[in-house]
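Repro case for the chain-ordering regression, as requested:
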Amino acid sequence: MISAGRWILYSWAWFATILQLPGDDRLSGGETTVFVTNDKAFARPLANIGRLTRRQHTVGNSFFNQNWVAAPASTTARDGLGYLFNARSCSACHVRDGRGSPPVSGEDALGLVIRLSVPGRLATGGPVPDPAYGLQLSERALPGVKPEGHVRVSYREEKGSYGDGSSFSLRKPTYEVVELAAGPLHPDIRFSPRVAPAVHGLGLLAAVEEEELRRREDPGDLDGDGISGRMNRVWDYEAEKVIAGRFGWKGNQPSLRQQTAGAFVGDLGITSPLFPGENHTDIYAKLHGFENLPASEQPELDGKILQRVTTYLETLAPPARRLVDDPVVRRGQNLFSRMKCASCHTPEMRTGEFHEVAELRNQTIRPYTDLLLHDMGEELSDGREDFMASGREWRTPPLWGIGLQERVNGHTTLLHDGRARDLAEAILWHGGEGRTAREAFRKAPLEERSALLSFLQSL
Amino acid sequence: MAALLVSCDRDGNKDQAAGDGQPVTEGQVVEHYAKLVSATYGDALSRAREMQEDIETFLSGPTAELLEKARDSWTAARIPYLQTEVFRFYEGPIDDEDGPEGLLNAWPMDEAYIDYVEGDASAGVINNATDYPEINAKLIESLNEKDGEANISCGYHAIEFLLWGQDLSADGPGSRPHTDYSTGENAERRSEYLRAVTGFLVAKLEEVEAEWAPGKDNYRSGFLELPSRDAVEKIMTGMSMLSGFEMASERLNVAYDTKAQEDEHSCFSDTTHNDMIYDLTGIANVWSGSYGDLSGPGLEVVAGQIAPELAASLGAKIKASVEASKAIPVPFDQAILGEDDAPGRRAILTTIESLEDQAELLVAMGKEMGFGVPISEGEE
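-- result from build under test --
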């Protein structure tokens, strides 16, 4: 016999599942959620996309996927690569719109870049470029031009043990830059390796009102839960003012448009109306004897294509969760809150009503991020400041789709530099504000740890 | 209730013959589809062989006339091939895991990957004897899409580029001189490339054609053993993906939006209008069951039995799309230019909209039939 109250509860759950009402845990992105589990799981347009938006999405997709070539070329809409670059296309690193991984030994990185800077701050509040190498190490260049250098990563295993005595091993990376083509790096160089993040669901994160993010800030940890959380505040090059940063590993970009234009110039060497200057320094160009293209060839990416690629990124859907009613997954979900993972990996938010793309408005989303900066301890520090973010601070990355990463990208590496080889290692790397959660996980019995991982796999 | 009745009908009619008032079965429609596929690939193969002969004749004594003849037979060879494109997208022989689609029809291509272009006389594999001392089919296959999607080394569009050259004029196609194959720089290597890439194309078409040939243990025999509703789902998937994803989005909308010549499908020969018309004709063929002299029950019969009104709208839309594509002014690379109210751009937008409608109607029809029909990549 079940009580009437239970019966109502069960029926409601059943109806909610069938009708996909709000409250359905599967709906990572509300009405935008796509039900896909194949290797295109991050590559689908919003489920509710309208015709006109879809058209723009398609064009952006074409420019995201295809290789850029050196200018001038007969494929005029797709030239402008270099001189210096990290990849020939966006999709070379964000493969199938998914996540990159660090290079295997001896190979050049594709999917991981090295950000550089020297101490100090620009007038914008941003990091100061290395005088010869700029803000990012370019590992590739057009024929006849020397790449700036090549990064080599090696790992040292560090043993640890779970509360139940079983052991684990984490790999700690060391980076070396070889074949530097303009002499040694600045003696006080700041150095930050970053893998290409997956790009699905970003439009929904953009559509969350700044007010909603601000509400979750607690910079002085006034509630005493050991977790602070603050927004990065960064330079918006179009508005020419400081606003909230929410994209990138350190939340150093205020908008997808600026993030996209920044990646075009930084990663591909393609100028745009937003960033009309090439990515090499004058010192480097002089040393290697190449000249900038005539002004008539600039910017290499026109404003319309920048807008299309931005729309493309805004309209990639988050995939639906799987196995939400599995008892082990349910248990893992409870543990996720109990262990305080959910304090930063915020399970639920709502998008605002003003985003330019109507499909993104008023959605209940489950991104598992608060988009705020948190101190992650010395363990994860890169020692490089990025606007307000210190070396130890990182922006909580979203977790939606994380269980499909292996399907999409064929690897399970995680964290900003891909040092974690799987979900458990990623948790075990957490320090600083994440220390309490990490310790809760580390000390938990095997059965609880597996349940938590099952839950993460269902995202 | 309706769905239940349909499934009873289907099972009940499974073994009955058509004609004399008996309703046509899905099984019969599927069988006729296989015939139509086989006939279309058969034509694609024989036209490609004719093109190969004409190219061989041209290479054995290059003249302007013989080059023109080879170009004409390329254009003729495209017509049946384009009508096979509706047989893609369901992992049939053309585009299953080791299917040759990417080796036959990949685009857009960076032509500098193969041969010289304006401003770079020494570009491409043809002019690089150091890295590629010997040109043969094996090399060409290994180079396709190496280091990038635009690095196309083979297929119809590679042959097109080798016959026409870059299209640098507003009012006509590319005008590669026939002397490129006699007195021009690296003429011998270029001839070898054209010969090898053409032979390779014919060989790949032979493989696909054989998979659909009757009376063999091949893809076709397996296809005909599928539950007929599963086969219909594949047939519809080809139609909807070609309508929505490939034609409306990738081929028409990207070129319409960017106004960039490189985004037109057959940019060297200025025959992109054929690409539109005959791809859409391929969809109409599957719907009506007619191709050339061949006729029989098409998909419209099954659709009409399941959802008559929807089938009527869909049939009308498929016709309208073919007509809309015929109204796009030639050449396509000029039609995409200008203001949005220019006749060319209006005609293209009309075609895009018609195809979007068509894709949506196909999705709706799939629902009536009990399955989901994708209109863009990665749907499940």
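Ordering looks correct now. Chain B has a mean pLDDT of 91.
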